[in-house]
Amino acid sequence: MKIFRLFVLLSFIFIFSCSDKGQFNILNQGNTISFSGTPNSSYDRSIFSFSDQGAWFSYSFPDTNSQVLGFSGPFLMTQENGAWISKCLSKLQIIDKQGKNILDSEIKNIVQNSYLSHLEQIVSVDKIEIKQELFFESSGTAIIQTKIKNITDKELIFNPVFSGKIINKFIHLNSKNNTISIHSEKSNVTGYLSFPHANIDSIILCDTSYLLKLNQIELKSGKSTIIYTKQSFSFQDNLYSEISNINYNDLLKKRINEKNQQLNDVISRIPLKWRNEAYLNLVSKCILTLQNNWRSAAEGLNFEGCFPSYHYKWFHGFWAWDSWKHAVALVHFNSGLAKNQIRAMYDFQESNGFIPDCVYRDTSIEANNYRNTKAPLSGWAIWKVYEETGDAAFLAEMYPKLNKYHEWWYAERDHDKDGICEYGSTDGTLIAAKWESGMDNAIRFDDSDILKNSDQAFSLNQESVDLNAYLYAEKIYMNKIAIALGFEKDQVKFESDALKLKTKIQQQFWDNESGWFYDTDINGEEFIKIMGPEGWIPLWANIASKEQAEKASKTMMNTSKFLTRVPFPTVCADHPKFKPDGGYWRGPVWLDQAYFAVKALRNYGYNTEADLATKMLIENAEGVLDKGSAIRENYQPITGEGLESYNFSWSAAHYLMLLLE
Known about the structure:
Helix content is 32%, strand content 21%. It is α+β, with helices and mostly antiparallel strands. The two termini are 29 Å apart.
């Protein structure tokens, strides 16, 4: 096995010594995720869709053989946790003087491209070429710019006609002043479909469909005309207004420049060893994944943030530890969103410091979860945002809230008051206590029980090494924050408390015989000998001694335990309960824990091993480097198959962090 590991490491070094380290043209990074498909029904989840600016709606390209010119959708995320309200809300037809649709002729060519900034499709038929570009003006409005070009040697006379049909039974249409309004029985959102700058001839409308004809256009040979379609969705009806003097072409150029700048800023910081075309396309895919999951403040959510996945209907909310992880990645290209992602969760902080597990825009669909919180990583996120932005005001804003949350752990989750905390719940249920760890069904909790601390505070009957390592890291970050803000007394306290906790973790949770950190029973006397990712969190937090790190790193790089095809499964691969297929936290690889593992190796100087693991995480996970494929929630460690949800934010966030660090 040692010979195999040496061979793998030497091969990896050779490959990267020969890699292309040249510059990369970011403008070529289109189509990183496929957005092609026409929904078969309102609840079709087989199609990925594009959004931007925190919009609660998104679009796709129609099937190339569908003869539909327009964009699929919108997919409305305020409608029953996500539903397509139309196959194509603004389908275009070009009706000539004989009453025939020019677009019914054979399509000569069709090109569909997606970018961070917009969707673009170009269609050529016998007489015309049509270029359509869809981009988001704001969180509430998408613009479709349609350019029609006469490619014949004669003048063309035609009427552009737009039509749409609603496919969701809870959506209805109305019309007023040449604007079509869209109403839902299931939410407070009102939609609007309008045609800025256009001269409208007539509108025919019923409850679920419309047909709108524009005035006749006379287009000379080689000339073009442009039509704008505006689709808006507002939570407050009176916020909508029709502005006719906006230059939408300039807005599109602005959006393109903005996105290219974001991407350029990130790519400029990628180390040369990762700077090849495939890896840099992954950077774009990661940013796009987070962008598509970006939601603006609305109703029950007072700050913007990212869903774990818009594509999975039960992930239409913000989760605590997802939010901390998202923020650390987001700050590299959208610092305002990173800050608000943190604020979004702290906005729900209770007077005792508790932060709920997850929160939603519409709690009539699903209630906010106050049964548990999540692992304490917000201090890490707050400090990382400050490191990137230098925003001392943000640091000062969050510090007292973070301090309160940190103290909550010791007040509510330290059953025997020994300074070592446990995961737990507010309702006394075992399932919620397991959720609090984030590793919902991890094998280490199979024999756990629940203990009562007070009326609304319960602990597991085991002390978890990862939880206390996170709390140690939080003390370190709070010490740094106190220094930055000039709070000398707090600085001394956190420094002293961190040192005491570090010593306890090194002593209580370390098993020298097997060379691993384990959870223990509530008395701190017996190991719960399940070898999982919690064992490398003390290395991520810089708690382990040099000798402990050396032993743990060898286990991490052992091919029979954690160096699987996709490295760092959620339990060692030689455990009897290892379940790589559909095991959730009993085998599959989650990118957050894999990132912590790589960072753990780097903290102790094992950079060659960390580089190898990073390469394996990227290249051996199904579809990660493939154009069009979505990033998945987790991965099968032996085969690399993508598992669970598509377009998963924290996977994208941690892939981005792996490449940046």
